[in-house]
Amino acid sequence: MKNKLSLIFWMASGFYGLTNAQGAEHEHGMTGNSTGSAPTVGIPSSQMGMEVVNQSLVQPPFVPVHEQSVGKQKPKVIHVDLSIEEKKFVIAPAKDDKPAVETWGMFYRATNPDYVSTNPGPTIVVHQNDVVEVHLINPTDNLFAHNIDFHGATGAMGGGSISLVSPGEEVTFRFLASKAGTFIYHCAPGGLHIPSHVVSGQSGVLVVLPRDGLRNQHGKPVAYDRMYVISEQDVYVPTQVAENVAQHEVAIQPLMKTLTPTYVVMNGSVGALTGEHALRAKVGEKILFVHAQANMSTDGHLIGGHADLFWPGGSFGNKPEIDFESWNVPAGDAIAMLYEFREPGLYAFVNHNLIKAVLFGAKAEVNVEGKWDSKLMTIVNPVGAIKQ
Ligand SMILES: [Cu+2]
Questions:
Q1: Which residue in 23, 149, 194, 240 could disulfide with 39, CB within 3.0 to 4.6 Å?
Q2: Partners of 345 in the beta sheet?
Q3: Which residues lie near ion ligand 1 (Cβ < 5 Å)?
Q4: pLDDT at 13 over 60
């Protein structure tokens, strides 16, 4: 049954599989001269004369250890190992008298066994002109074929047309990170599987930093103390939990057609970044927030704060805008904004469609430690009964 399903989904993906087969016939690398019209099979990265680094991937909102500026260092090959997990998960935990809500998801995950997969997949951080090398594994016990389309890559459907892997297959490909910025990656296996895999969890973020680091509105270097990746996702949940991920995909088709999500969540589930899971910062720290949405546009807002610097589209090659109160994230995009916290307390990072924030779950929190600055805000008369 499983093999049959895989075959059906492979065939439904049509030309992706065909392009893959054509590419394997060629014998050129990205460092060589390509004469054909399709992606080619290149030399191993160890023979490219570049340093190859295995990036140790971590659970979002956190990002891999990295340098912000690499100055005149030579570009490297940054290798990442990704696997795909199809699993049941809790989209909304039990609350008051309501039981937890379970559904099926499809996720990119780091290959270390203790990594807990969720949406988004692990963030990859490189510098402009580095080469990103992706090893993608589709474990044998999965039901679907999957691939990966990097918005930071050029050509071949962002890598989607050369990376389609059925259960039991793996692929390695690499691309030049030619543009600086914050970019989505997501699954796009063909046809109706494209939206259903994305809204079921298969997206993540690639951060391509300028080689000499970020610059402010005056062109001066600006460093951040922490980077957090907040990925918002519209999620469609059938009233009955499906028996397997394939039945889940069928069940969500009519729900997706309403364009009305059951949940809109930040980092995979309701409450994933609130309460005890709130992000942390200190007064005086500059935080680089990356706000992503793979499938639906959104409007972000940090309640009680601002975007001191805002890079629309996450395009670090542009001068940042300053002092934004809210920012748009187009569908299939990730923006970057930097804020220096000036007051302690709890901040809400929300979709400022407040219906989505409060009723659908699109809310994160930042818990900021430090000393209150009365110059910025003070109480004149505390709350009390109206005096006659
Ligand atoms: Cu997929």
A1: 23
A2: 368
A3: 146, 187, 197, 202
A4: no
